[in-house]
Design a protein that fits this description.
Layout lengths: L5 H22 L18 H8 L2 E13 L20 E14 L4 E10 L3 H4 L11 E12 L2 E9 L19 H5 L3 E12 L2 E8 L13 E9 L5 E13 H5 L15 E14 L4 E12 L5 E3 L2 E3 L5 E12 L4 E12 L3 H6 L4 H4 L4 E13 L4 E13 L10 E2 L6 E2 L1 E12 L1
Antiparallel strand pairs: 1-2, 1-20, 2-3, 3-4, 4-5, 5-6, 6-7, 7-8, 8-9, 9-10, 10-11, 11-14, 12-13, 14-15, 15-16, 16-17, 17-20, 18-19
């Protein structure tokens, strides 16, 4: 909500009082005349109804202009690790998000988040058919809180990582590589036990990674723990997910998971563990560290899309560091450093511009540097500008620099760069 200048508010109040006094004077009947009927009382506004019922309504609009010097294997797609910035050149609405919630500390409540825009399709969970309408029910759950326990049933955000679908909660425009390599949401049941005012234990069971409709009959177990110092100067989170999943639903990079209409018949154990730490050094500077490790069980000599994997348990992990500096009320900077290691080429072979045959069983590493500047126009609107550089360290057996390619597909390189300008308006 925009704030009025103090003088303007004073003048508006004076005018309102004068108008009210004039109206009351005009309403007085003349001598001997019958009194006029009283005006009908006005009802509460929609905002009054929401506030009085404990319901909060909020949202944001995220508009981005982006461009990159490479494309994904000669197509209009950009670096596959960009996730929400996967086009070579684009100007449009990434997200129009609306959240309605009532989450009391005791008793029943609920939340729903609707997302419209380009990002909605990659956020879309597996339902058995491919979405194409740029619309997603990103979260929808019922909640009941009693004593130290809070129970949630429905679709909710993952515990993995520090970045989230909500653009206003991230310090950068583009998402990290790790954000696209791990789940966004889960559909199931979650229970949170408050161990103290600053620590919680979380346990749950769900359909797996980004699945409204379970792609198999087995379920995934969720465990989490978070702790913070009393002054919130130090915050620690750790989470684990383990369960049996179809391989191909996972093989496609996660930003395409919602677009998968069918899954592989082979199923294997998929585990991920994530730990992150936030250290607040001052009102102006904080550091965030995030480390994630995942594995997928495969049958012996598993073949997929022309590639045969000799490693029966491929693994990959990501490391990310965020250096956030608040210059003043208006200006801020955020530097993100990332490292993605694909131990056996499983993720790169099935999700990137690398040919499956070339990437299979190869140790592949990608590093990224992202610098973002933010300017607060007012409390509701932030403008952001970002520059990002990615570099793939490929083994000598992968020749020609297949990781990124020029838009015409005739040249390839191991390096990619991009730039973005974003406007995020909260309401």
């Amino acid at each position: 909500m925009h704030k009025f200048p103090r003088n303007a508010l004073f003048m508006a109040t004076m005018l309102a009082c004068a108008s009210l006094a004039h109206a009351e004077e005009a309403a007085k009947p003349a001598d001997g005349a019958a009194a006029a009927a009283p005006a009908a009382p006005k009802g509460p506004t929609l905002g009054d109804i929401f506030a009085n019922s404990g319901v909060e309504v909020k949202g944001y609009v995220d508009v981005v202009a982006e461009g990159a010097n490479t494309s994904n294997f000669g197509t209009s797609q950009g670096n596959f690790l960009f996730v929400n910035n996967i086009e070579k050149s684009n100007l449009g609405i990434h997200q129009l998000s609306l959240t309605v919630d009532k989450l009391p500390k005791e008793g029943a409540g609920g939340l729903i988040t609707l997302t419209v825009g380009k990002d909605a399709n990659y956020l879309h969970s597996y339902t058995g058919s491919a979405p194409a309408d740029n619309f997603d029910v990103t979260a929808a759950f019922a909640q009941y809180a009693v004593g130290d326990w809070t129970y949630q049933l429905g679709k909710f955000g993952t515990l993995v990582g520090v970045e989230v679908p909500d653009s206003t909660a991230n310090t950068n425009i583009s998402r990290s590589m790790g954000f696209g390599l791990y789940p966004y949401t889960h559909t199931g049941v979650r229970a949170t036990k408050a161990l103290s005012d600053t620590s919680n234990f979380i346990i749950g069971i769900n359909n797996g990674w980004d699945q409204i409709k379970d792609a198999n009959t087995q379920k995934t177990v969720e465990l989490g723990y978070n702790w913070a110092k009393a002054d919130k100067s130090l915050v620690f989170n750790i989470s684990f997910y383990g369960g049996t999943e179809p391989v191909s639903l996972f093989g496609n990079n996660t930003e395409l998971s919602g677009l998968v209409a069918s899954v592989d018949s082979y199923q294997g154990e998929r585990d991920v563990i994530d730990a992150n730490l936030t250290k607040v050094f001052s009102e102006k500077f904080n550091l965030v560290l995030d480390a994630t490790y995942a594995t997928q069980q495969l049958p012996k000599n598993y073949s997929y899309s022309g590639a045969t994997f000799t490693d029966s348990k491929p693994r990959w992990y990501t490391l990310a560091a965020y250096f956030n500096y608040q210059v003043n009320e208006k200006n801020r900077w955020s530097l993100r450093l990332e490292d993605f290691i694909d131990q056996s080429g499983f993720k790169s072979a099935l999700g990137s511009a690398l040919s499956s045959t070339a990437a299979a069983n190869q140790y592949i590493q990608v590093q990224s540097v992202t610098l973002t500047y933010g300017y607060m126009v007012d409390s509701s609107l932030e403008l952001r500008a970002e520059a990002r550089i990615d570099r793939a360290n490929l083994p000598g057996s992968i020749t020609g620099g297949l990781f990124y390619s020029k838009s015409d597909g005739t040249q390839t390189t191991n390096n990619g760069s991009s730039g973005s300008i974003e406007a995020v308006y909260k309401f």
